[in-house]
Please model this.
Amino acid sequence: MQNVSVNRLMHKIKPGKSGASSLRSTSFYLALMAGVCLLLADIEIISPSPWLELKAMGQGLITPTIPDYQELLSGLANTLSFALQGMALAVLAGFLLSLLYRHWWVRASCAFVRAIHELFWALIFIQCFGLSPLTGLLAIALPYAGTLAKIYGELYEETSPHPRAHLLHSRSLSAFLYTTLPLAWPALRHYTRYRFECALRSTVVLGFVGLPTLGFYLETSLSEGLYSEAAGLLYVLLFLIASQRWWLRKALLPLYLLAALIFLPPTASFNWQIISQFFTEDIVPRPLRTDNPIGPWLVFLWQQQLWPGLSNTLVLSQIALFFTALLALLVFPFCSPLFFGRRIGQVIRRSGDGLLIIARTLPEYLLAFVALLLWGPSMLPAIVALALHNGAIVAHLTARFGEQIVLRDDACKGLNRYFYEVLPRIFRQFMAILFYRWEVIIRESAILGILGIATLGFYIDSAFEEFRFDRAALLILASALLNMLVDTLARSLRRNLHLNTTADIR
Amino acid sequence: MNAELNLQSSLPGQKARGPELAAGQHTVFLLNNAQLSYQGRAVLNNVSLKITAGERVALVGKSGVGKSTLLATLRRQLPDALAWCPQQTGLVPMLSVYHNIYMGGLQRHNSLYNLLNLIKPLSQPLCEVTELAALLQLDKHVFDRVEKLSGGQCQRVAIGRALYQQQNVFLGDEPVSAVDAYQAEQLLQLIVERHETLVLALHDVELALGTCDRIIGLKDGAIVLDAPSSTLKVEQLAALYR
Model:
């Protein structure tokens, strides 16, 4: 009898691999994939004199200037206005959608709109509404509404179901308003705040395609090699985001929003005919419009643009994912209280935190733009930019998670502590965070193509420049499908590895 | 066998209840040879039970014997037409006592009215809830967040929420377990006054005999006792706990 039960116990433990070993093999395959991708990637340094350029940039950083305060103020006001209005609309739409999030068609459409990067949305809306405030507003609001709806919906699901179940007519809207909503409220506020910071970054990036935000002036001065001016703008941007907690107050929000609407009314001089032509004719594949067979068009597009774009996007994102992980693992001890003595630790932690804040405050797109000026158009600048920005975020979140760990008094020190005590404890959470960033890295990899690296964004941007909107539409659709696929894959990986599947990523 | 499946045939549906209503003593709950399970595990077998309007029933028995399961089954028979006071209070910690009690009456108003009341308490419900809070000795805490209250105070808020549901039938799962004996009696009195039919799970045998007119005793997965309180003594009930 006893033997039988012991046998059963063994069986219960045995099936499937244990969590630790499947985590290990997943990390091995991630590294292997990155290695293969590195062989395929083009990471040459093309620029003739990278060191000279770096020196000039360094000089710029220590001699920041602001040549035109009026220009700066208007750039700043535009940035804030776009971000505030875009977020306001996104929060409103996202909240309403989150109420319907249990319907599959709402989930699917949210997944679709957020799978298309705000820069691609901007390129689409520019065709309809020109470089107008409405374009910027919609480019932010649309994908953000999709993201917020998803996160809000997930946060509702995480609340305790009991208070609601005890009510009469517990499925009513009123029951939701009195139980689920207040229970989720602190998390909703926290996430929305974080998202506003993202919106500020996105707004800056929209400047690179022509909207008059800080990014527009940054791009101009960077391209002209005016590094002192660029540094001035950069410091303003950093200060704007770092000081958020002092000026972003709930009581002041209505005032800010009103000011934003007065300063930058979301208008556009648009022509319905152009818009309807864009959606009913321009984006329809050309062969369909001219009654030709669509086969050759598709084959041509696949061979010349879709396949190279897709494969480069994947190659870039896998390498970037690997270096993100590597950087995060290297850096997080420097901002974790688990390492270094008390006194030196404080200094190291402060400076570590400071550097990470700078790296994660600067958008990948901006980092890549600067790196591109240094090394010329290859995958190298994109890898560096993606790994820096995302590595900083993953390191920060990992270090925050590590704060919960209490080590015994006589725990070993130094490298031993890192490998024996800390790494095993945080690795699961670290992988969860990393998989969460995976989708973001893919989206960004596609976008960086606009800078001239041959990912999907490159072909999309060229198609817009050549007014071949049918190609652009198909390529954007492909990038959206890729993101949705990776999102699903990452979620099922997280579930299989028993990682946290919810969005506690701040 | 699933309890709900079994119950389909014996549910006191609208049609079946009609004639009995006319007779003046209609059936509120009816279980016919039901098997009740909790999380997939059978807890009570062959339960046959009829509770008519006006009865005050106490469920007694050791903890884990299936009182909560039986109550949950009864609740499913009239999901939106009975006052429900669960053992786990299930209050919303960040809302005030006022809002937690008001929650019991959400179904009487439209969503917009409820939303406005959530943002700023409206005068009529405020008046009603304050009156109720005074009876529950919560009048000093009407605008306090529930997360600041003690366990006993939370239980009184949960009773307040159930009372504010304003139904004829009251189901309570140990509704007074966290308050002292004197308060417990007062609270049960309040509940009795405001409801026609009651089913209460109570571990305090004396309280059960004093409050209810019918005692149902559960032991070892079955109903082993079903008798009027007047015929029972405390010592007889003690056997259920052995």
